[in-house]
Design goal:
By secondary structure, this protein is an alpha+beta fold. Helices cover about 30% and strands about 30% of the residues. An 8-stranded mixed β-sheet has the order 1-2-3-5-6-8-7-4, sandwiched between helices.
């Protein structure tokens, strides 16, 4: 294992992320090797990059944030997300676990309440070194929102175990409107206040 100083983290906004589109695609291909090989259309590099282009569109420039990790000078992982705006599509198909949860109150957004953590990925040859946790912390610790949410496939036991260890709690399920999207568990985590 390399010493911690071998890892450099770069914070990016939407425009900067778009400039590194080829790097983003490369990290995805080296991180989601098995998912891509499965042939699931949702995991195809083309669909993934289409979603990335949507997330980093100029209209979202002020809400998108990304961190890329470089290990010994080579891209090794990335994470990103955005602040949910009022009437966010994120909550459109959300079904809470509990009937005691007021869905409307839980999903109301004002543009400052919730950060949607969309992706955390580490290249296959860089896993097992704590890089995913570092990416997670670098991004979320820089956020001013009060809470964060993410989606995880229920059968992704490795990711689920990590998220639980990092303080995330399941609150329901959703099926995004992206073509071929699976049903995801919705997790939530309070963010540190400044």
């Amino acid at each position: 294992m390399k010493p911690p100083d071998a890892v450099v983290f770069q914070h990016l906004d939407a425009a900067q992320a778009r400039e590194l589109r080829a790097t983003v695609a490369d990290i995805y291909r080296r991180s989601y090797v098995d998912a891509i090989a499965s042939g699931d259309p949702f995991d195809s590099p083309d669909q993934f990059m289409h979603r990335f282009d949507t997330y980093t569109a100029p209209t979202r420039a002020d809400v998108f944030a990304m961190v890329i990790a470089y290990f010994d000078g080579r891209p090794a992982g990335q994470t990103w997300g955005w602040t949910l705006s009022p009437n966010a599509a994120w909550w459109k198909n959300f079904q809470p676990d509990s009937t005691t949860v007021d869905r409307d109150a839980f999903t109301v957004e004002d543009g400052t309440r919730t950060f949607a953590l969309s992706e955390i990925m580490v290249c296959a040859n860089n896993t097992g070194q704590g890089l995913a946790r570092n990416l997670h912390d670098k991004l979320l610790n820089s956020r001013p929102e009060r809470r964060s949410t993410l989606l995880v496939e229920p059968e992704n036991e490795r990711a689920y175990r990590a998220y639980r260890n990092w303080g995330w709690t399941r609150v329901g399920i959703t099926k995004p409107s992206w073509p071929d999207a699976p049903t995801f568990d919705v997790l939530i985590r309070e963010l540190p206040t400044a």
